Amino acid sequence: MPKILIIAGDATEDLEFFYPYQRLLEEGYEVRVAAPSRKKLRFVVHDFVEGYDTFVEREGHSWPSDLALSEVDPAAYAAVVIPGGRGPEYLRNDPDFRRVITHFFDAGKPVAHICHAAIALAPLGLLKGRRTAAWNACAPDVEMGGGTFVDASAVVDGNIVSARAWNDHPDWMRAFMRVLRKEAPVESAEG
Predict the structure, then answer these.
(1) Which of 46, 113, 116, 169 is flagged as catalytic?
(2) Global confidence as pTM
(3) I want to staple 112 with a disulfide (CB 3.0 to 4.6 A). Which of 15, 81, 135, 178 is the partner?
(4) What pLDDT, in 10s, does the model give residues 37-51?
(5) Which domain holds residue 72?
(6) Total number of domains constituting the chain
């Protein structure tokens, strides 16, 4: 069965981690979680409260990482998922994150990213010449990174599938599953 990597860190958006994690398992993929170190990650929940100009942040669930980014051999994985939240703000500074994520883009492997994940990709030049969705406040980051910001629930650019935020999950994962089924299909046990 193909292996899918999810890259997360502390303050990753809870829903943007768990929804793809569980959806990929349901589809039959082996899912591994990589973080800057092997540890129990602490996620956050972003919600919308009337009267706030932005979202509010609350403590979310915890989940262990399977391996440190320094231990990741990206060639062993068929695809990667990068959830949003504040985690990407720190991941982008990690040299092993840069090494791992660049492999997926250079190899043309499927990549799913959502919300603030774009701020970890844009400074690396990985969005240059690409159409991508992200949280609307990240539009300047996408554009400064040479990408074209698209305000949509699922944007497919080759093997890259992006979305704005957790409320886009159904469209985002539906589009990503179409890419995965083509590029890294799971063989049916029913034969």
Answers:
(1) 116
(2) 0.94
(3) 81
(4) 999 999 998 887 788
(5) 3-183
(6) 1
